[in-house]
Amino acid sequence: MTKQTLVQGTILLILAGLVTRILGFVNRIVMARVMGHEGVGLYMMAVPTFLLAVTLTRLGLPIAISKLVAEADATGDRSKVRKILIVSLAITGILSIVITIGLFIAAPLLAQHFFTDDRTIWPLLAIAPVVPVIAVSSVLRGYFQGLQNMRPSAYSQVIEQVVRIALVALLTGLFLPYGVQFAAAGAMISVILGELASLLYMFSMFKVKKKMRIRKGFFKQLKQGQETLKDLLNIALPTTGSQLIGSVSYFFEPIVVANSLAIAGITTAVATAQYGELAGYVIPLLFLPTFITYSLSVSLVPAISEANAQKKYHLIEHRLNQALKLSMLSGGIAAVVLYVFAVPIMDLMYDSPASASYLKIMTPFFFFLYFQGPLQAVLQALDLARSAMINSLIGALVKLAAIFALATRPEFGIMGAALGIVISIVVVTLLHFATVIKAISYTIVVKDFALCLLSVFITGAGAVYLYRYMMPQFQPLQGLAICVAATCAIYLFTLIFFKLLKKEDLKHIPFIKKWV
Hints:
By secondary structure, the protein is mainly alpha-helical. The protein has helices at about 5-60, 60-75, 80-115, 120-125, 130-145, 150-175, 180-210, 220-225, 225-265, 270-285, 290-310, 315-340, 340-350, 355-365, 370-380, 385-405, 415-440, 445-470, 475-495, 505. Helix 11 (about 290-310) packs parallel to helix 15. The chain is globular and about 65 Å long. The protein starts with 5 loop residues before the first helix and ends in a 10-residue tail after the last helix. Keywords: Cell membrane, Membrane, Transmembrane, Transmembrane helix.
C-alpha cells in the first residue's frame, strides 16, 4: 500500500479538490443550459435532503475509521483492521436501509407539506438509491485514508464528477419533455451513477490492495466487535455534531426560503427559479476557494494536536497564523474576481446576468467563510469540538431566523435569503475566532493581515480598470479570460512585493520546489 507524507497527501487532496470543483461547475453549467432556472431550483431544493441523508449515513465514521485503522496498521494488527471494516460496514449498512426507506416515505410528505412546490417529489425520490452506495464508499474512503493512501479518495472524487457530467446532459435532456421536475430527477440520477462509478473504483482498489478476507467469519467478527463499535462511536459521534447541525440547517433552508417567499407574495414558480439562481449558481462559486481551506484544515488538526500535546503554544499560534494567512491569500483573489467580474461570469457560465446582484452582495461577507475551516480545525485539535458545535448551532439558528425575517418582506424577497446566509457565516466565524482567542491567548500578526488587505484593494482597483477599459475590446469570453488572468498577475505581484509570498513558502510544495 503506497503511503504519502502529510504534505504530499494535502497537495493531492488540494489538486483533486480543484479538479472536482471545476468539473462541478461544468456540471452546473450543463444543468442550467438544459433545465433552466426552474429546473435547477427543483434540483437544489432536493440537494439539502440528499446531504442530510449522507451525513446521517456516514455518521462521522470516515474520520473514526481513518484514525483507528491508522493506529492498528502502525502496530501491524491486521485482524483489528478487518474488525473495524466489518463493524463499520454493518453500521452504515443498517443506517442506509433505514434512511432509504425513510426517504421513500418522507418524500411525498416533504413535497406536499414543507416545500411550496410539490414537484420536488421526483428529485427527492431519486435520492434514495444513492444512500447504500455512499454507505460503502464512506467506509472504504476512511480505510484508505487510515493507511495514509489518499490516491483512491482523490481519484474517486474526479471519477464521480466525470461520470456525472457525462450523464447529466443525456438524462436531463431525456426526461425534460415530461417536465422540469423529471429533468431534475434525471440530474439526481446522474449523481447516483457518479457515486456508483466512484464506489466501483475504490472497491477495485480495495480488492487489489487488501491483505484480508472480509466475508470469511463476517458475523462471528461482528458479534465480537462490541469494543470496536464503542471505539468507532466515541470518535464518530462528537465529530459528526457540527456536520449534522450544518446538514439539518441546510435541509431546512429551502423550506424556510420557499415559505418565506410565499408569505412575501412571490409565486411558487418564480420562488423556485430564484432559489435555483441563488443556491445553484451563486453559492457554489462563492465556495470555490474552500477546497484549499478544507485541505489545509485536514493537515492542521494533527499539527496543532502535536503542538498542544507538547504545550508549545507559540507553535500553535505560528501554525494558526500561517493557516489564516493562506486562507486570506486564497480568498482574496476569489473575492476580487467574483465581485468585479460578477456580471460576465454569471452571463457566460449560466446565461443569468441578473444573478450577479446576489454575487456582489454576498462576496464581501463570504470572505469570512475562508477563515472558518482552519479555525474549526484548531478547535477540534484543542479538544474544543463541543464549542465549535455550539457555535455552528448558533449560526444555524441565526441563519434560519434571518432568512424568515428578511425574505418575508417583499422589498427583500430572495435577497433576504442571501443576506441571512451571509449573516450566519459572519456570526460563526467570529464565534470560532473568539473561542480560539480565549483558549490560547492568540495574537494576530496585524502587519500580514493589513498588507494582505492592501493587496486585495490594489488588485481590486486594477480589476475595475481592466473590466471597464480592456474587456470591451475583446469578445466576452476572451475578454473575461484575459482580464481575470491579468488580475491574478497583479495580485501575485503585490503578494511578492509585500513579501507575503516568499520562495520558502513555495518550497513546501513537492512539484514546485525544484523550480525555486
